[in-house]
Amino acid sequence: MKVVCSWCRKEGRAEFVGEKAPLDDARETHGICVLHRDQIRQHWHASIQARRTTSFLGAASTFALFRWTGLLNFTKKIRS
């Protein structure tokens, strides 16, 4: 079977990646070339880093909110 990269085909580039068993079968199957695999991997790692940063900032702002609420409650107790 012929293995072709769908991303390369969409871009109009040479899409042939290789062959796999059964070799006498003339049909096509889809895979991914090294170039597009690396691009997807980089994009995936960048999105994970973005989520970690957002989660960290979200946790920090939540902590600040709890701290501020605690200070407000503390000042209410002092005033009473």
Largest sheet: 3 strands, mixed
Strand content: 15-25%
Unreliable residue stretches? none
- H/E element string? EHEEH
Number of strands: 3
| Separation of the first and last Cα atoms | 81 Å
Any idea how many domains? Answer: 1
Q: Helix/strand-derived class?
A: alpha+beta
Q: How would you explain this protein's 3D organization?
A:
The structure is a single chain. The chain starts with a strand and ends with a helix. The protein has one domain (2-79). A three-stranded mixed beta sheet has the order 2-1-3. It is elongated. It has helices at 6-11, 34-79; strands at residues 2-5, 16-19, 28-31. The chain has two helices and three strands, in the order βαββα. The chain has 80 residues and is α+β, with helices and mostly antiparallel strands.
What would you say about this model in short?
The chain is built from two helices and three strands, in the order E-H-E-E-H. It has 80 residues and is α+β, with helices and mostly antiparallel strands. The protein starts with a strand and ends with a helix.
